[in-house]
Amino acid sequence: MAQKKILLIDDSEIDNFINKAVLSKSDFISEIFVRSSGKEALEFLKELVDIPDSFPDFIFLDIRMPIMDGFQFMEEYSKLPLEVKNRCKVYILSSSIDPLDIERAKNCVDVENHLTKPLAHHSINVLINNA
After folding, report:
1. CA distances from 53 to 1, 60, 67, 112, 125 (A)
2. Can you give the residue ranges of every domain in the chain?
3. What is the H or E stretch that residue 59 is in?
4. Residue 39, SS3?
5. What is the DSSP letter of 11?
6. What is the pLDDT of residue 69?
7. DSSP character at residue 118
8. pTM for this structure?
9. What angle, rounded to 10 degrees, do the helices at 38-48 and 70-77 form?
């Protein structure tokens, strides 16, 4: 299996540290990018639009963040070219168990699934292999 690139988007330094440590244990992951806001992540992705091979294969996105929350990020993400979005799977990774957040995530066309934090509760290899 080809090596995968991951983008973590979360305003919590602790969550990013833990998630990066969990992801680093997978043999299938070559690079892990971390951005602490939806706005920073969107700017990062826009820089990569013309270099599709550099675009992340997976995004793990928190919902509740200042400046631009996860749902606002997804609104802007949906405007990116289809050829790069087709290369990437987006997972909401949130501590929210609010049924409205879960339903809203399900209604986002570009969201693969809603996962609850921490990432350590999920099998990274299963997520990557099933994508």
Report:
1. 16, 18, 29, 20, 21
2. 4-9+21-122
3. strand 58-61
4. helix
5. S
6. 92
7. P
8. 0.92
9. 20
Q: Is the backbone of residue 19 left (phi > 0), alpha (psi -120 to 50) or beta?
A: alpha
pLDDT at 122: 67
What's residue 1's pLDDT?
55
- Among the residues of the chain, which ranges form H helices? 13-24, 38-48, 70-77, 82-85, 99-107, 124-129
**Average pLDDT score, the chain:** 89
Please state which architecture CATH assigns to domain 4-9+21-122: 3-Layer(aba) Sandwich (3.40)
State the CB neighbour count (10 A cutoff) for residue 99: 8
- Please give the Cα distance from 18 to 85 (Å, whole number): 26
Amino acid at 81: P
Q: Name the residue type at position 24.
A: S
